Amino acid sequence: MVRIVVEGEPVAQGRPKFSTRGCVMRAFDPPESRAYKEMVKLVARVQMGNKPMLEGPLSLSVKVFRSVPSSWSDSRRKMALARQILPTTKPDLENYCKGTTDALEGVVFKNDSQIVAHHWPFGKWYSNRPRIEIEVKEIEQ
């Protein structure tokens, strides 16, 4: 099992940007998404050390902890921190997953197609300490 914690406000995978050069169109990551992926990749490399990449089918857990909006009242903030209010606003959970699995490819596992399941806990919550926690487990066959 590999567990990675990336401190700071999580960044979801943004929509690709497109450019044309001559008659060739190419897509690329928005700068914010690209920078966050690089940070996740760096943290994963440190966590992995000299361990070999995970092989075979994998299960993934992604826990996203977002900051409570500063405009919220104290009572609403307390409810959010007690998980009575969950972040139902954009970006959606799948965009966080896409960005993190892209970053872990080639570091923790060879290809994100190895991820065949999700395991609990998996979701978005509010926290005074924004971060993303990623857990990847090999599935025994």
Tell me the fraction of residues in β-strands, as a range.
25-35%
Radius of gyration: 17 Å
- The figure for the number of domains is 1
The mean pLDDT is 94
Low-confidence stretches: none
Biggest sheet details: 5 strands, mixed
Overall helicity: 25-40%
CATH class: Alpha Beta
CATH topology (fold) name = 60s Ribosomal Protein L30, Chain: A
What string, H for helix and E for strand, traces the elements in order?
A: EEEHEHHEEE
Give the CATH architecture.
Answer: 2-Layer Sandwich
The DSSP helix count reads 3
Number of strands: 7
Structure commentary:
The structure is a single chain. By secondary structure, the chain is α/β, with parallel strands linked by helices. It has a single domain (2-138), classed as Holliday junction resolvase RusA (60s Ribosomal Protein L30, Chain: A). It is built from 3 helices and 7 strands. It has helices at residues 31-48, 74-81, 93-104; strands at residues 2-7, 17-21, 24-28, 58-66, 115-118, 123-126, 131-138. The strands form 2 sheets. Strands 1, 4, 5, 6 and 7 form a 5-stranded mixed β-sheet that branches. Strands 2-3 form a two-stranded antiparallel ribbon. α1 (31-48) crosses α3. The chain starts with a strand and ends with a strand.
